[in-house]
Design a protein that fits this description.
globular; membrane; single chain; transmembrane helix; Energy-coupling factor transporter transmembrane protein EcfT; ABC/ECF_trnsptr_transmembrane; mainly alpha
């Protein structure tokens, strides 16, 4: 899984929609998810987000690729929230997490990274007068949308490796490999960006 995008070209309605419209829809959906207070409606919303993959003609293997990495994270968050905040809160948080990751993944699968960056760059042009670089900010937004599934994938891989070795769960045994692998992925990403002409000049 690459932080630079997983665009999957198919002749679907979602692919033909402008990147700006899809970004706006993602923002509205994210706000709406946090305004829904009932478990049943949030679960229905999460299922609806997953059904959008069918509209986008995304193969099942790619849908699973979006969800598999966050499975461990969702289970961990669900258990922790159930213990410390109750079942109601656990369901709300996990349903929102699944829906948001699904929507972010769908956006990157149906939108070219270049279009996404160009759209964000155009929206952020007014910030140029304050010394901001819209191009870099646009790239940052695109990378942020991909970062959650990628980090979740790292977490899932580490936990699977621990189970295969018969290692019991421990915070220390999980966090250290997670940090190391994240730093390595970040270094690889930096090298990829430099190769594409994105540097500190």
């Amino acid at each position: 899984m690459s932080l630079l995008g997983l665009y999957h070209p198919t002749p679907s309605l979602l692919h033909r929609l402008p990147a700006g419209l899809k970004l706006a829809a993602l923002l509205v959906a994210a706000i709406g998810l946090f305004l829904i207070p009932y478990e049943i409606w949030l679960i229905a919303a999460a299922v609806g987000c997953l059904l959008l993959y069918a509209v986008g003609r995304i193969p099942v293997r790619l849908v699973w690729a979006q969800l598999k990495p966050i499975a461990f994270v969702v289970l961990f968050v669900f258990g922790a929230q159930w213990i410390f905040a109750g079942l109601h809160t656990a369901i709300l948080i996990c349903a929102r997490l699944i829906a948001l990751v699904a929507l972010a993944g769908l956006l990157t699968l149906t939108t070219r990274t270049t279009e996404l960056v160009a759209t964000v760059e155009k929206l952020l042009q007014p910030l140029r007068r304050f010394g901001a670089d819209p191009t870099r900010l646009g790239l940052l937004v695109a990378l942020t949308l991909r970062s959650v599934p990628v980090l979740a994938e790292i977490a899932s891989d580490i936990r699977e490796a621990q189970r295969a070795r018969g290692i019991a769960w421990s915070v220390r045994g999980f966090v250290l490999p997670f940090v190391i692998r994240t730093l390595r992925r970040t270094e690889s990403l930096g090298e990829a960006l430099v190769a594409r002409g994105v540097d500190d000049d």
